[in-house]
Write a structure and sequence with these properties.
Layout (H helix, E strand, L loop, with lengths): L3 H29 L1 E3 L5 E12 L2 E10 L16 E7 L5 H14 L3 H4 L3 H8 L11 E7 L3 E6 L2 E6 L4 H10 L6 H7 L5 H13 L17 H25 L11 H9 L5 H20 L1 H4 L7 H8 L1 H6 L5 H17 L6 H5 L4 E10 L4 E8 L4 H14 L13 E10 L3
Helix pairs in contact: 1-7, 2-4, 2-5, 2-14
């Protein structure tokens, strides 16, 4: 009979073996995690990571692409299929989400790239009409030749068929000012297998409630039956109109109108016809000359003033939607961060001591672009590096004034700075 020590060793071995098998299965799932697009294309997982705000977990983002992709930058080609998938791990305001996307798109893309697509960007942000809860899912699928499809909890909400739109969204994660440095690294697939497996586990456990957002699609549906009813009513009005000419047929047997023809015949035997014939011969020549003169005058009434009016009216209507405060704010933040980074220098003392770290500063500006306050909300662990960031901001100031499109008297933005030894 086995001793108690033997039993304990056996049970411990079983636990270790179970943990090993479980971790192995998760690793296999991580390698096999795929996404299916509506056209049947299968995509492989490239990277997955956690988006945080003030160290609070907000959502897990996953990036999928063709198995042939060896570099994330290859996904920026419009001819390459891709999916950006988001699953929320906590509640999040729909207004904050809309602002997040618009500002980040303007922060990570040049103005000449996002401005022509302002209408599409605003339309995308307006899809989020209710608060997001844990488990909610947003899928952004780009299919070459079809466009960029936006799904909320498995329901297709819209398709944007504009070149470059998918890249604006992709750069939110992969641009120069990503949500966090760690998130960008995760999305690029640079995490260790254990960290990646942990994110995949959290992602797969949260299953979205299918159809939770479908009520937001209700308004456009009643428009279809109204159109069909009008189309059916139209032929009923045309039917009586075709019956009217049948009543006019019995009026044809009225031969009484032949009398004036007889009168003309009676006038012909008179002695005056030869005189009239000669006059008629002279008149047609004069009439022909008179008729040719007004012909060149007829093109005069071809005036085109209404066309000029039509060209002047549409521009003011189209200009209104192209102004969005969140996009303007994002573009302003992009300029501010870039102007500060121009003054980045690795402190000699920190370099000698091989100090590395990430620093995030929150800066408050007043209307004219002067600095009101600088607060370090994320420190590097090195006082030398922390002070270097504050010095960079002071050197870059004063900044350009707050854009006139923004009404606030103060403007707050964050500056992420990384010090890494090559």
């Amino acid at each position: 009979m086995p001793s108690s020590s033997m039993k304990s060793k056996t049970s411990l071995l079983s636990v270790v073996l179970a943990v090993f098998i479980l971790s192995f299965n998760y690793s296999v799932k991580a390698a096999e995690m795929t996404a299916s697009l509506s056209d049947g294309d299968e995509l492989s997982l490239i990277g997955i990571g956690m988006y945080q705000e003030l160290r609070n977990d907000i959502y897990i983002g996953a990036l999928f692409g063709p198995s042939s992709v060896t570099n994330v930058d290859q996904l920026k080609d419009d001819n390459v299929a891709k999916r950006m998938s988001i699953r929320f791990v906590s509640e999040y305001s729909n207004r904050k989400l809309a602002r997040h996307w618009k500002e980040r798109m303007a922060m990570n893309n040049p103005r000449n790239q996002w401005q022509p697509l302002t209408r599409e960007i605003v339309g995308f942000s307006n899809l989020f009409k209710r608060r997001l809860v844990s488990g909610d899912e947003i899928n952004i699928d780009h299919i070459p030749g079809v466009g960029t499809q936006i799904y909320l909890n498995k329901t297709l909400f819209t398709t944007v068929n504009k070149s470059g739109f998918a890249n604006l969204l992709l750069n939110v994660w992969l641009g120069n000012i990503p949500p966090t440095k760690a998130f960008k690294s995760s999305i690029r697939g640079l995490d260790q297998d254990a960290i990646k497996t942990d994110f995949i586990t959290k992602y797969t456990v949260m299953e979205p409630v299918k159809g939770r957002f479908d009520a937001d699609l209700a308004p456009p549906t009643p428009a279809t039956p109204v159109v069909t009813r009008v189309a059916r009513a139209a032929p009923q009005q045309r039917a009586p109109a075709r019956a009217e000419p049948k009543k006019a047929e019995p009026k044809k047997p009225e031969p009484k109108k032949e009398e004036p023809v007889q009168q003309v015949a009676q006038k012909q035997p008179a002695a005056k016809p030869p005189v009239t014939e000669k006059k008629d011969e002279a008149k047609p020549v004069q009439v022909a000359k008179a008729e040719t003169k007004p012909e060149p005058k007829k093109p005069e009434p071809k005036k085109e003033p209404p066309k000029k009016v039509a060209k002047l009216t549409p521009p003011p209507v189209e200009e209104e939607p192209f102004i969005d405060a969140d996009l303007i704010a994002g573009s302003y933040k992009r300029d501010l961060v870039n102007s500060i980074r121009q003054f980045q220098e690795y402190p000699a003392r920190a370099y000698r001591q091989k100090k590395e770290g990430d620093v995030t500063a929150k800066v408050t500006l007043i209307r004219d672009g002067s600095v009101k306050e600088i607060e370090l909300i994320e420190r590097s662990g090195s006082r030398i590096l922390d002070k270097a960031v504050t010095k960079m901001i002071r050197r870059a100031a004063p900044f350009q004034e707050i854009p006139s499109e923004l009404e606030q008297e103060e403007f707050v933005f964050e500056v992420p700075i990384s010090f890494t030894l090559n």
